Each structure stands twice: as structure tokens, then as C-alpha cells.
What we know:
The chain is mostly helical. It has two domains: 2-110, no CATH class; 142-259. It has 13 helices and no strands. The chain is flat. The two termini are 51 Å apart.
Amino acid sequence: xxxxxxxxxxxxxxxxxxxxxxxxxxxxxxxxxxxxxxxxxxxxxxxxxxxxxxxxxxxxxxxxxxxxxxxxxxxxxxxxxxxxxxxxxxxxxxxxxxxxxxxxxxxxxxxxxxxxxxxxxxxxxxxxxxxxxxxxxxxxxxxxxxxxxxxxxxxxxxxxxxxxxxxxxxxxxxxxxxxxxxxxxxxxxxxxxxxxxxxxxxxxxxxxxxxxxxxxxxxxxxxxxxxxxxxxxxxxxxxxxxxxxxxxxxxxxxxxxxxxxxxxxxxxxxxxxxxxxxxxxxxxxxx
Length: 287
């Protein structure tokens, strides 16, 4: 019990010392992500720990996986900063869980079981957060894949009506008011660059890299190979691509429907068990 008490005090003192050492050092960096990540009060301390222990360098392979997901979610320009903040969040959660483990063991007169449970959660919660990040990335890609066929169809209609590909992309952005769409968010940024007279090839390549999806890369490649020729060749290529994208959208919708139905199995089982208890309990009491 004494060991747990000393360890708790030591961890709290270390946190206070690190908080004083990192005071105002990361204010601007933390302020930028104030509304995006939890446990922001611990962010300066966690960032200081990451810097001093060189966690980014020593755990390069694990951090690279996180950064790849951040590139997909926020683009290459903001990926590194988000990787730092997400890693700081993992450190904060781990530190709090370890302190909580010692505190629980101290309050229960040195119960080793509760200490072990707390240490287990200090590993489990960061893993859960990384999996949650993977789910966000997958959900973003699914949203883009669901919206891409409609975008291609709109471009086909506008090009058939006499618009250039550049004008068609800008018109698609103007006609869309969905602010929660990741595809149109990236497309809106690309349209702003096109209106600023940036090179169409550069803009479209950057758009493909930001989306980080093979189907978007195929779409941009198809457009870039045929947009100078225009006419029937571009329309035929886009129609063929549209057909493939709609098939993928159908398969994706079918998969999401199956996942939704499988998630209902557990609640239905609980309801079934509850009904069996309600029906069977009176019979058991009579017997």
C-alpha cells in the first residue's frame, strides 16, 4: 500500500514539474486544436514528454501509421501537426490511466487486481483511440465513394451541355450545399484554386492526393488524359468510369446494409432474453 501511495505522489509531482516546464511553450500549437481533441489541459505536458523522450523518432513505424491516416483525413499540409496532437492525446490518456491505477490500488488498501485492471485500460484505451481513428478514415473514404458517381454524372451532363471540365467542376461545387461532404470539401478547395488561375493539372493531382482513394485517382487520370481532346472521347471515358463507380457504390451500400443488420443481432438477443424472463419467471414461481 505504501508503494502505491509513494508512486501516486511521485507521478503527480512529475506532472506538476512538467507543467511548469512546458508553461506557454506550446500555447499557440495547442490553441489551434482546442476544439478537436479532448484532454487539452494535459496537451502541453504530453507534448513536452514526446519531445524530451523523442517518441516520434523512437516509435517511427507506429507513428507513420497514424500519420498516414492523418494525411487521409486532413491532407498532407496539416497531417504532421495532427499526428503530434493525437500522439499527445494517447500519452495523456496513458498517464491518467496509470495515475488512476495507483489511486484505485491505494484506496482499496493495495488491491493488486484493481491496479492490474487500471494498467490494462492504460493500454486498451490508446488502442481503442487508434481504431477509432481508423474508423473515421474508413467512413470518410466510404462517403467519398458514395458521392463520386453522382459527381461524375454531373460533369458528364455539364460537358455535354458545352461546359469545359474546369467550368463543370466549379459549377458542381456551386450547386452543392452539403458542408459535411468530404468529397466536396476537397473539391471546393480545388475550385478556389482553379478560379485563381492555377494549373488545372496541378490542382487535379493535388485533389487526388488529398482524397487518397484509388477511384478518385482513376477519375482524375481519366480527366487529365482526355480533357484536352474533349468531345466524345472524354464523355465515353467518363461514362465507362461512371458505370464502374455505380457498381462499386451498389456493393458498398449492400455491405453497409449487411453491417447494419448484423449490429441489430445483439440488441434483438437481449430483447429475446428479456421476453423469456418476463414470460418464464411467473411460471417458475408457481412451480
